[in-house]
Amino acid sequence: MKDLILKISLKNKLFIIFIFVFFVSYIIINEKIYAHQPYFIKSYSKIENGLGIKISDASISHALYGEFDKKNQFTIIDVDISDSEDLLVQVLIPNKYPENEINIDELPLLQISSNKNDYIEIRPDIRIEFYEPFTKMNLLRIASYNVPAKSNKYSIQLLSRSSSPLRFVQSVGYKEVFFKRYIDGDFEDITVERLNKWYSRETINKSDSNFKLDLLLILNNNPTVFLIILTLVIICVFVGILIIKRKFYNIRKKGFD
Q1: Residue ranges of the domains in the chain?
Q2: Whole-prediction pTM value?
Q3: What b/e string do you get for 124-146 counting C-beta neighbours within 10 Å, with b at 16 or more?
Q4: Between β-strands 183-185 and 53-55, what pairing exists: parallel, antiparallel or unpaired?
Q5: pLDDT in tens, 109-132
Q6: Most exposed among 25, 66, 96, 193, judged by the fewest C-beta atoms under 10 Å?
Q7: CA–CA separation, 122 and 108 (whole Å)
């Protein structure tokens, strides 16, 4: 009888763990997320030491939000990538005024170079509408570069060619990984309020906030906190199971006596 109780308890443990994992997964990711690892990227007017962003694995999907406010500003992203991976770099802008009415010659120019002295410029000559369900934004993809990596180090720059303010998103990578950082350098963590202000030019009403996005950004910006909370929850679940098992066993034992 004791063995039977232990078997039932093990099933209960597995069932409760499954329910917990399913619940967390449903709350956080009940729709496909296309742009993991979102951050704000800074724009520069001149090259100085310590500038730019470093991504240790360019196959991991990153969405970097930024804004130019004058001509000849630029961003810097240095990436590492395995030879067997594809290098995917894209540039997007909000599909709204004024960005979607700017002439091609005034849209930012994507420049990519490798440590093998390869260099290429990708003109912003495409217009592909793109809805980002993660942030609920309507965007336009204006430049894309997707090739098998021939080097393990690349430098990616986006150059402003307009004197007017322009918002942009630089997308690097394609693998969807969350709660682990591959980025370092001169970047800023994203908050929901600031992200919506970037897109809508106004502060978002708290009643219209995206709970899943709030939760994802908080956990992504604090992966250690997430692991601690998850560990504590699992410990509490197991302690609860042990207490219930002990009470159930004592009740059954009294019944047999």
Answers
A1: 2-29+222-256, 38-205
A2: 0.69
A3: beeeeebebebbebebbbbbbee
A4: antiparallel
A5: 999 999 988 999 999 999 999 898
A6: 25
A7: 10
